[in-house]
Amino acid sequence: MKNWRILENKLFVRWLSFSAIITIILLSAFFLTLTISSWPAIKANGIQFLWGKTWDPVKEHFGMLPFLIGTLLTSFLALIISAPFSVAAAIFLGEYHSKGTIPNIFRNIIDLLAAIPSVVYGFWGLFTVAPLIRPLEVKLHLPSSGLGIFTASIVLAIMLIPYSVSLVRQVISMTPIQLKEAAYALGGTQTEVIWKVVLPYNISGISAGFLLSLGRALSETMAVTILIGNAAELPHNIFSASNTMASVIANEFTEAVSDVYSASLIEIGLLLFIVTMIINLIGRSIIKNVSLI
Question: Domain with 123 in it: what CATH number?
Fold first, then answer.
């Protein structure tokens, strides 16, 4: 019996090691495939591809700066909109009502929001959010299509909330009970303990959680494609129609007739892959360090 348990443990460890190796191989295969497929564009466009402002497939002039700006504006604006709601929901579920019927209902709602397909969010935004944005654009004397960076960011913020709430609640739960008990012993109220002890203690972990949410926002495709207006030009303001790195690939890849055109789209995908990987690694590294404190 003892020998069987030892063998079982060895088999389990080997299976875990094999799974980890397969994951590394898959990530390496993604990177190599994207690099090889985008090589014609890397040679043709050069380093100017990163800051080029013109995207003209007819003349084969390719610059990804408009899509990079559109991606960053949409993602950071969505993160700014979602952050207060995410922190409030995480505090509510982690500190005020961690157990009981009400928290369970809220958790189920949050899980349901996370499970809704992004294309459904996109159509909901098209028929619900966009009509609400049009009157605001009219008052600001802007083109009143209702589609643009701001509309896409609002819907993207709603999509980020379940992910952010889960991460922030997990970080908040790591607060040592001794710190909170000491604050209560000094006469602090629950609100004071949360604002002056829990949040300051976990600020780096909360920041890392939002950094991981940012990685999720950068790679969102379908909802943003439906709502952002799909314009291959530098945005003038947050209401302008634009494109993200993911949406331009979704829109134009099937229309890419030349090798350089399709390779340029793949190169955008390669850069998006690299940026997303870096942001996720930084965020997970911060969370890991916080959990060891």
Answer: 1.10.3720.10
